[in-house]
């Protein structure tokens, strides 16, 4: 199943999909577009445009999916050049759009267009919502969509997280639920990959940072245990193990078996400087949990609802991060959960200590509430509490069947549907006051990770066995 999981990483996590028709006619011709940075031999990948300099130079072919050869591409190009026709490229996000026209005469072997990056972006270092692009001939003929990544505007790509590794390491050989991936809140093509509680390699904590599908030429691997700021504050760096991690707009948070570490502000990057980490003490209770060695991925997790900093002009999201901990059976320490906002130096209690295990929690960006998923003696329950006004419960708890073993909660960034997943999957259209079942898994299987396409309603869920369930969230609203 490892191969299936790799397909998920390279396609859905980077969120670029092309429509495929069962029957192909001239109307089903599609463009393939690329930049110099996204060429892989003689092929292009996923219609992703990457910009690293002052200009965006886009190349494109028109292709026939039933007979896609260099000769057929050249024939289609020659045909439309002879007709004095050329495509148009539209660059857009949720708040801005502009169309650029390729020259109708071209002496090269493909259409080519150069656009100064100042036409669609400020030249600064702050994160910005990743652009989408569409390519069409005439009035939306052969419409093809893709994404555009401006490397300058993605802070995580400009830091050294530790010592660079010369080649991709062999990280794991077990179940895929050890894999942890966190995406940039602004650019889904930018992601960080690590392996939780990895005892397979003695190299330490390894993270890979990619901006193009974890392909070799677009991914940098770091040995985090060679970062002096991280190892100087741990009790024994050789025993450091990753439990969970999150990338927010401005910080990388590492939850380890020895503590929680928060990076310095990533936006103030100085190219290829080494990122600094600081230990954050949540409170004395969690400090005792770390010291006792009772932190594992099975009982302690980080959660957040990603929100790109630049989507709303003049608004900076608080980037709420939640940590949940439910100790092993028989432990004298109660269940705990806390939340914080950037720069994550002060933490507040999310849910009071109780006999119910807090499995997961999610921050509702639209309503400024917290949604908490608990495992009680009577079965799983979801409660919605206000972030302000004393944290009072807003609705009666939503109840799930006792057969449901929960793993997590996640909001969809497009339509704001709320998913509760585990041995089954449920969806809420009202922010957590009620849920409807949408998926039951075979006995023994459980969804261990969830991801959503930030541009459409699609979702993907991966089980611990490596099976992938993929669908459109909007279907549940019918």
Automatic annotation (TrEMBL):
<feature type="domain" description="Cation channel sperm-associated auxiliary subunit beta 2nd">
    <location>
        <begin position="178"/>
        <end position="471"/>
    </location>
</feature>
<dbReference type="GO" id="GO:0036128">
    <property type="term" value="C:CatSper complex"/>
</dbReference>
<protein>
    <submittedName>
        <fullName>Cation channel sperm-associated protein subunit beta-like</fullName>
    </submittedName>
</protein>
<dbReference type="Pfam" id="PF21541">
    <property type="entry name" value="CATSPERB_1st"/>
</dbReference>
<dbReference type="InterPro" id="IPR048786">
    <property type="entry name" value="CATSPERB_N"/>
</dbReference>
<keyword id="KW-0732">Signal</keyword>
<dbReference type="InterPro" id="IPR048788">
    <property type="entry name" value="CATSPERB_2nd"/>
</dbReference>
<dbReference type="InterPro" id="IPR015943">
    <property type="entry name" value="WD40/YVTN_repeat-like_dom_sf"/>
</dbReference>
<feature type="signal peptide">
    <location>
        <begin position="1"/>
        <end position="17"/>
    </location>
</feature>
<dbReference type="Pfam" id="PF21548">
    <property type="entry name" value="CATSPERB_2nd"/>
</dbReference>
<dbReference type="InterPro" id="IPR028748">
    <property type="entry name" value="CATSPERB"/>
</dbReference>
<feature type="domain" description="Cation channel sperm-associated auxiliary subunit beta N-terminal">
    <location>
        <begin position="48"/>
        <end position="149"/>
    </location>
</feature>
């Amino acid at each position: 199943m490892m191969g299936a999981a790799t397909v998920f990483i390279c396609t859905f996590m980077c969120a670029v999909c092309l429509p495929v028709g069962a029957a192909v006619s001239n109307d089903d011709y599609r463009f393939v577009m690329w930049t110099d940075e996204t060429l892989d031999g003689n092929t292009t990948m996923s219609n992703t445009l990457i910009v690293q300099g002052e200009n965006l130079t886009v190349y494109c072919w028109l292709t026939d999916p039933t007979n896609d050869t260099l000769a057929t591409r050249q024939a289609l190009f020659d045909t439309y050049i002879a007709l004095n026709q050329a495509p148009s490229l539209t660059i857009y996000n949720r708040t801005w759009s502009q169309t650029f026209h390729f020259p109708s005469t071209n002496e090269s072997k493909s259409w080519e267009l150069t656009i100064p990056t100042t036409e669609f972006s400020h030249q600064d270092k702050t994160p910005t919502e990743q652009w989408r692009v569409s390519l069409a001939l005439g009035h939306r003929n052969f419409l093809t969509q893709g994404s555009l990544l401006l490397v300058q505007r993605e802070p995580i790509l400009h830091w050294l997280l530790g010592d660079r590794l010369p080649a991709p390491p062999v990280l794991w050989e077990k179940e895929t639920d050890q894999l942890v991936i966190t995406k940039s809140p602004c650019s889904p093509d930018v992601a960080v990959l690590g392996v939780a509680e990895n005892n397979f390699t003695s190299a330490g904590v390894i993270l890979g940072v990619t901006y193009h599908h974890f392909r070799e030429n677009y991914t940098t691997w770091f040995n985090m245990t060679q970062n002096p700021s991280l190892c100087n504050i741990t009790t024994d760096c050789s025993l450091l193990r990753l439990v969970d991690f999150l990338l927010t707009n401005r910080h990388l948070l590492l939850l380890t078996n020895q503590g929680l570490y928060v990076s310095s502000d990533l936006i103030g990057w100085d190219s290829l400087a080494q990122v600094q980490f600081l230990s954050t003490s949540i409170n004395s209770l969690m400090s005792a949990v770390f010291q006792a060695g009772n932190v594992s991925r099975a009982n302690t997790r980080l959660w957040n609802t990603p929100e790109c900093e630049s989507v709303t002009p003049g608004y900076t999201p608080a980037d709420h991060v939640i940590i949940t901990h439910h100790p092993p059976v028989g432990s004298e320490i109660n269940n705990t959960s806390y939340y914080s906002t950037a720069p994550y130096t002060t933490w507040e209690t999310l849910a009071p200590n109780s006999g119910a295990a807090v499995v997961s929690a999610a921050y509702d960006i639209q309503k400024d509430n917290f949604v908490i998923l608990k495992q009680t003696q009577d079965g799983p329950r979801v409660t919605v509490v206000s972030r302000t006004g004393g944290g009072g419960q807003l609705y009666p708890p939503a109840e799930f069947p006792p057969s449901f073993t929960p793993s997590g909660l996640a909001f969809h960034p497009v339509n704001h549907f709320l998913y509760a997943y585990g041995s089954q999957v449920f969806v809420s259209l009202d922010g957590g006051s009620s849920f409807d079942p949408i998926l039951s898994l075979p006995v023994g299987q459980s969804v261990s990770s969830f991801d959503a396409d930030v541009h459409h309603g699609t979702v993907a869920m991966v089980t611990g066995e490596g099976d992938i369930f993929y669908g459109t969230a909007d279907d549940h609203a019918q």
